[in-house]
């Protein structure tokens, strides 16, 4: 049987990326979609790390098993770091990627190209019963595009332009994204500490 890895997430985009990336290491991914009885975990933290720890420890306790959680988002310099930890619900509780992207582009409409710098941040927490929780982080730098482009990925990928590729994150193939993304970088660090 393959090694199982349990991820405290209900985000289908994250699940897909973790499935692809963990497959390389021989792990099979299970997510909150397979634990419907677990109530939604409220993200009350002020930082990505606080929220990742909250999600990982809540599920680890409920299942009495080792789990990981990913709290991530888009940090835009010209917006003083917003949407940040509010990335998922930036335009409202319905968590619409389209509405979130429109809100960001609207807020950025008068910002010149040189001031459109931003980064994706991914914080992964690992919680195991009876062991200290630890956290790793990965980032990916880019520029907020003037309009959305591309259909791959999820979330803010269509408006995150990567100067090194001359494409938005949503115009990269899944394989390309999984080599350079904030999530890929966090996972690399995770694998260095994994036991
Ligand atoms: O909490 P879980 O259940 O994991 O799912 P979530 O979607 O609420 O996840 P977060 O609380 O971590 O919020 C992260 C948001 O940041 C955005 N985001 C995270 N990673 C991204 C990525 O790789 N590409 C584009 N947007 C991303 C996207 O809008 C996510 O909904
Ligand atoms: Mg969330």
UniProtKB/TrEMBL annotation:
The active site is at 71 (proton acceptor). One of its GO terms (cellular component) is cytosol. It comes from the Bacteria. InterPro entries: dITP/XTP_pyrophosphatase, ITPase-like_fam, RdgB/HAM1. Binds 1 Mg(2+) ion per subunit. Mg(2+) binds at residues 42, 71. Pfam families: Ham1p_like (PF01725). Substrate binds at residues 9-14, 72, 154-157, 177, 182-183. Keywords: Hydrolase, Magnesium, Metal-binding, Nucleotide metabolism, Nucleotide-binding. GO terms for molecular function: dITP diphosphatase activity; ITP diphosphatase activity; metal ion binding; nucleotide binding; ribonucleoside triphosphate phosphatase activity; XTP diphosphatase activity. GO terms for biological process: nucleotide metabolic process; purine nucleoside triphosphate catabolic process. It catalyses: XTP + H2O = XMP + diphosphate + H(+); ITP + H2O = IMP + diphosphate + H(+); dITP + H2O = dIMP + diphosphate + H(+). Its EC number is 3.6.1.66. Homodimer. Belongs to the HAM1 NTPase family. NCBIfam families: PRK14822.1, RdgB/HAM1 family non-canonical purine NTP pyrophosphatase. Pyrophosphatase that catalyzes the hydrolysis of nucleoside triphosphates to their monophosphate derivatives, with a high preference for the non-canonical purine nucleotides XTP (xanthosine triphosphate), dITP (deoxyinosine triphosphate) and ITP. Seems to function as a house-cleaning enzyme that removes non-canonical purine nucleotides from the nucleotide pool, thus preventing their incorporation into DNA/RNA and avoiding chromosomal lesions. This is dITP/XTP pyrophosphatase. The lineage of its organism: Bacteria, Bacillati, Bacillota, Bacilli, Bacillales.
């Amino acid at each position: 049987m393959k090694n199982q890895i349990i991820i405290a997430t209900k985000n289908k985009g994250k699940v897909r990326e973790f499935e692809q990336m963990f497959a390389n290491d021989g792990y099979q991914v299970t997510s909150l979609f397979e634990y419907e009885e677990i109530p939604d975990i409220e993200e009350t933290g002020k930082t990505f790390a606080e929220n990742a720890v909250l999600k990982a420890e809540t599920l680890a306790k409920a299942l009495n098993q080792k789990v990981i959680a990913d709290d991530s988002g888009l940090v835009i310099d010209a917006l003083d770091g917003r949407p940040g930890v509010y990335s998922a619900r930036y335009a409202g509780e319905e968590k619409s990627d389209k509405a979130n992207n429109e809100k960001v582009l609207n807020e950025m409409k008068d910002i010149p190209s040189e001031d459109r710098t931003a980064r994706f941040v991914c914080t992964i927490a690992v919680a195991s019963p009876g062991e200290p929780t630890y956290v790793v982080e990965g980032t990916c730098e880019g520029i907020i595009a003037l309009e959305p482009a591309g259909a791959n990925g999820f979330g803010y990928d269509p408006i995150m332009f990567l100067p090194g590729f001359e494409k938005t994150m949503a115009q990269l193939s899944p394989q390309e994204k999984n080599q350079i993304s904030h999530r890929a970088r966090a996972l690399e660090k995770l694998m260095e500490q994994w036991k």
